[in-house]
Specification:
With 300 residues, the protein is of the alpha+beta class. The chain has helices at residues 34-48, 99-111, 155-160, 173-184, 254-258, 289-299, and strands spanning 12-15, 18-23, 28-31, 57-66, 69-78, 84-90, 116-120, 125-131, 134-138, 192-194, 207-213, 221-228, 235-242, 245-253, 265-269, 272-275. It has 2 domains: 12-145, tt1808, chain A (Alpha-Beta Complex), CATH 3.90.1570; 163-299, no CATH class. A 7-stranded antiparallel beta sheet has the order 10-11-12-13-14-15-16. A 6-stranded mixed beta sheet has the order 4-5-6-7-8-9, sandwiched between helices. It has a 3-stranded antiparallel beta sheet with strand order 1-2-3, covered by helices on one side.
Length: 300
């Protein structure tokens, strides 16, 4: 089944060109690592939608596996008596949830029995339940881990997660909330985290993106959209990818655009950087801004 963590994102901060993730359970900042992002997204779901107490969730819980070996469970949820109730194994998004992953969490279960087990890569969840017949696959979400409330995704939510610039003017609050909702709470196309090893750190492009197909050959041409508030302004980043290679980047400064400044958008290609005018196709004035920006970037 689709993961319950699909539309949850960790709280972040940007320090010395490095992104750090906030662990709301241990109350500490962590390095931005792929499995850490998944673990914190699942934790966000448990905390915000299931309303579990942070004291009832144990991240990276150590267990003895025998023969003086130790294992580390990504997340353990405890019941009211602080007995293990659910073991969670988190994998990177590209790792398939196969029998090998299931065997790994089953091994942990031998040392720390629990009624439920979950393996997830942040896009797909696979649940298991302990029964009198052994460990069995579940086709549905256990009642104890169903959502009991909606997430309050007002402006502070998006600011805390690095999508919105903390000092965004009041006049843009509704706009940036709407853009974030469109990009990051899309049931049809869940966002994907992309990192860029060969891009200067000051671009701060590592982010969650909504990926859309474009043109006749939809398998080879993709457009990625992200809101980026981690720098000293609010940008909308649009990236064109052709055959799996990022070839063009459009960075739109929404603050400059709202102030009608001429230097409000920069286009980066293999030929270098140039200032462009996107005022007629921006989300400030156009409901079809995603389609228009996609077309512009493909033809630029």
């Amino acid at each position: 089944m689709l993961s319950t963590a699909l539309h949850h994102y960790p709280i972040v901060r940007h320090r010395s060109n490095e992104l750090e993730l906030w662990n709301p359970i241990h109350k500490q900042w962590l390095k931005n690592r792929p499995e850490e992002r998944i673990r914190l997204r699942v934790a966000e779901y448990f905390l915000q939608e299931c309303q579990l107490s942070p004291s009832k969730i144990g991240p990276e819980f150590t267990v003895n596996l025998g023969n003086q070996k130790k294992g580390r469970i990504d997340l353990v949820c405890f019941d009211a008596n602080y007995q293990a109730h659910c073991l969670v194994e988190c994998k990177q998004v590209h790792i398939p949830l196969n029998e090998q992953v299931a065997q790994q969490i089953a091994k942990y279960h031998l040392s720390l029995p629990s009624p439920y087990l979950l393996i997830t890569n942040g896009r797909v969840d696979v649940w298991f339940q302990r029964t009198s017949r052994g460990i069995e696959y579940l086709e549905y979400l256990p009642d104890e881990y169903k959502s009991t409330r909606e997430v309050d995704r007002q402006l502070p939510y998006w600011v805390d997660r690095g999508f919105v610039y903390p000092y965004i003017p009041d006049s843009l609050h509704e706009l940036v909330r709407n853009i974030c909702s469109r990009l990051y709470v899309d049931l049809q196309s869940p966002p994907i985290y992309l990192d860029f090893e060969d891009i200067p750190a000051e671009f701060m492009l590592d982010n969650y993106y909504l990926i859309t197909s474009f043109g006749e050959d939809e398998t080879h041409t993709r457009i990625a959209f992200a809101m980026n508030g981690k720098g000293n302004t609010q940008s909308l980043d649009v990236i064109l990818s052709e055959k799996g290679v990022s070839t063009k980047l459009l960075k739109i400064d929404l603050l400059a655009l709202s102030n009608h400044e001429s230097a409000h958008a920069a286009l980066y290609t293999e030929l270098g950087q140039q200032q462009v005018d996107v005022s007629s196709m921006s989300p400030l004035d156009n409901e079809k801004w995603m389609d228009k920006l996609s077309l512009f970037l493909s033809m630029a």
